[in-house]
From TrEMBL:
It comes from Kosakonia oryzendophytica. The keyword Cytoplasm does not apply. Heterotetramer of two alpha and two beta subunits. Belongs to the class-I fumarase family. This is L(+)-tartrate dehydratase subunit beta.
Length: 202
């Protein structure tokens, strides 16, 4: 059965999720990336959007302005989440965000934030930005537009946005880090075998 998270997301909605699970999001999804994180954490500026119980998307969308405060989402693909790693623990703590979506994995700072404050990180598949835009029913607000289109906080109403692959669960278990251990264990004997076959090369 399709697992759909609906905002506002509660702690209990996340407790059963494990790394590798696939979920979809219905409700409010706010694009939030580098500069917004820096403004909150480094510059101590209050976010103009209340993220408690909501979801953020590490993304730089393409948006068309249709009229005064009326927008259309054209493309909304993920950007690399690891760029926000050094901010994410404090970001989770200060905002109460429950779902963080992006591209690729995140590290120990985010793991601790998810574990302590019951949040999750999920990966949206790359290369599907136009498809993702079809899940945006409406752009309800746009804040910090002085940052330019990619960094603006676009407040989106979405329906079954996904698929989202849980990469860090609310216990801090990290799919990417666990997979690295498996791959590295498999890699070592293969490297040794190759070295034996090519050791004659100087």
């Amino acid at each position: 059965m399709k697992k759909v998270l609906t905002t506002p997301i509660k702690d209990e909605d996340l407790l059963s999720l494990k790394p590798g699970d696939i979920v979809y999001l219905t409700g409010t999804l706010v694009t939030c990336r580098d500069v917004a994180h820096r403004r909150l954490i480094e510059l101590k500026r209050e976010l103009p959007v209340d993220l408690k119980g909501l979801a953020i998307f590490h993304a730089g969308p393409i948006v068309v302005e249709k009229g005064e405060n009326e927008f259309e989402m054209i493309s909304i693909g993920p950007t690399t989440s690891m760029r926000m790693e050094k901010f994410e623990k404090e970001f989770i703590e200060q905002t109460g965000v429950k779902l963080i979506v992006g591209k690729g994995g995140m590290g120990p700072n985010t793991e601790e934030g998810c574990r302590t404050h019951k949040a999750v990180h999920a990966v949206f598949p790359g290369g599907c930005a136009v498809l993702a835009a079809t899940c945006v029913e409406k752009i309800e607000d746009a804040q910090w537009r002085d940052l330019g289109m990619p960094e603006t906080l676009w407040v989106n109403r979405v329906k079954e946005f996904g698929p989202l692959i849980i990469s860090i669960d609310c216990e801090g278990n990290n799919l990417f880090e666990e997979n690295k251990k498996v791959y590295n264990a498999r890699k070592l004997p293969i490297i040794e075998e190759i070295n034996q076959q090519v050791k004659f090369i100087k």
